[in-house]
Amino acid sequence: MILLFNPRATKPRNRRLPLAVLAIAAVLEGREDYEIVDGNVDDNPVASILRLIEQYNVELLGVSVMPGPQMVAAMDASREIRRAYPHVKIVWGGYFPSVYPDAALNAKYVDYIVRGQGEDTLLELLDAIRGQRAFDSILGLSYKDIFGLPRNNAERPMKGPDEFPWSPFHRLPVEKYLRPSFFGKRTAVHHASIGCPFNCSFCGVHAAYGNKERMESPERTAAILSHLVTEYGADSVQFYDMNFFLREDHALELAKRIEHLNLRWWCEARVDVMSRYSDETFAALKRAGCTMIFFGAESGSDWALKEMKKGINTEQTVTIAERTKQFGIIPEFSFVIGNPGDPERDTRETLAFIRKLKKINPDSEIIIYHYTPVPQPGNMYGNIDGQIAWPSTPAEWASKQWMDFTLRIDTQAPWLQRKTKDLIDNFEIVIGSRWPTVQDIRAPKWSRILLKTLSAWRYALGVYRFPVELQWANEFISLRKPKRESL
To answer: First vs last Cα of the chain: how many Å apart?
Structure first.
């Protein structure tokens, strides 16, 4: 038997279908005995895994690992399972081991690493474990050889979603994952593409998957969404794609195919791509239920965007703010502030640009991050190669210093002075209070009025220093934080 484990990564109210694990389960369905254990649903997933190992002949435990809390949960669980059953092979896959393979493989309780897209790699790994092929022939695999030395095989070419079977939703209690959100009472999730064809030098997506994107056909996307609606009562959906609207013809066809489902939905897109879309396409997307779109605006400075290799400019972001207002779609603009070469200028210009966007479209949701690097030798934003000594084990990543780095609480970036970091953080509190996120469906009306009232004078006068009253109010009210809690 194969066990697939999704360690806990979020609060119960924020849990969504574990799409990464379901994608692996899809290729096992009908050819292998397997079970899924999800820490976001199971209160004691380690006990469940140990019980399954006691009952069945378990060959392999596959663990899906994102940086942050899920990595810590994966580390703790893998350690305990290795102590109890040292014969069970443990393989980590997902974003964390794909970006930090050496650190993951340095853990004594991890036997194999699946980098990037894992469906075919896992099937071939099973063959190798059973003596039917050589480990060094498996693309996308990292492992320890007979001497305990790390081996990183060549990358695996990416396949499109249509080349794999549907997720076996019947293997999970789907009703536990369709949680209320701003978009509906039963919000599902779906991944209609994989990868990203762009080369932004601050982002880890192409470090994990390369600079390619493979898109699911509109016909298949519509069929899966229809299944979630008719079988499980989904009324809204969050698309996890990095670039949901890569091609206008694709987006228009999909909009027409799903309009009858009456879903409200959220997705991600690029400002340069969508700024070229016709009014017809925007209107079709709105009719199809498009409610909010996340855009990586990243900076209010064209010079910084050029250094990021983002491939967009601020004029395109302004255009998106105007056009989303025209069609009644909420834009969610994300900014990565703190250019290593001139963080003070980047911060000053970006905060002014955010104020400009809010004036154009007050409904704009603003997400602010400090620049948090990921290892991309020779291609790191700001030419910071050598300035950061990356942790060499999961245990080091689990320390407070590196958890704060991962969660962007405090990156301790040597190029970002404390006064600049404080300005970014204080501005975030002020603007977030002046326009409380619409994504929090629990906050009472009075709490929003309180935050708006307390912050109005600060925003109007541009006074961001020492917003103690807003910090207290936000702790008391505890609004949802979209950049950490998703939807």
So the answer is: 34
Element housing 101 (H / E) = helix 101-105
pTM, full prediction = 0.94
More confident residue, 202 or 464: 464
What local confidence, expressed as pLDDT, does residue 62 receive? 98
- CA dist 13 and 434 (Å) reads 25
CA dihedral 78, 79, 80, 85 (to 10 degrees): 80
Pairing mode, strands 141-144 and 112-114: antiparallel
Give the angle subtended at the CA of 193 by the CAs of 188 and 195, to the nearest 5°.
Answer: 125
Those residues with Cβ within 8 angstroms of residue 111's Cβ, 6 or more apart along the chain or in another chain: 89, 90, 91, 143, 144
Distance, in Å, from the CA atom of 67 to the CA atom of 390, rounded to the nearest integer, reads 13
> Is 285 within 8 Å of 255 (Cβ atoms)?
yes
- Average model confidence (pLDDT) for the chain? 94
**Residues 6 or more apart whose Cβ sits within 8 Å of residue 193:** 160, 161, 213, 214, 215, 216, 241, 242, 243, 244, 246
- Provide the token pair at 104: 């993951």
Task: Give me the DSSP letters along 44-89.
Answer: SHHHHHHHHHHHS---EEEEE--TTHHHHHHHHHHHHHHHH-TTSE
**What whole-number distance in Å separates Cα of residue 432 and Cα of residue 481?**
10
Percent helix, percent strand, percent coil in the chain, to nearest 5: 45, 15, 40
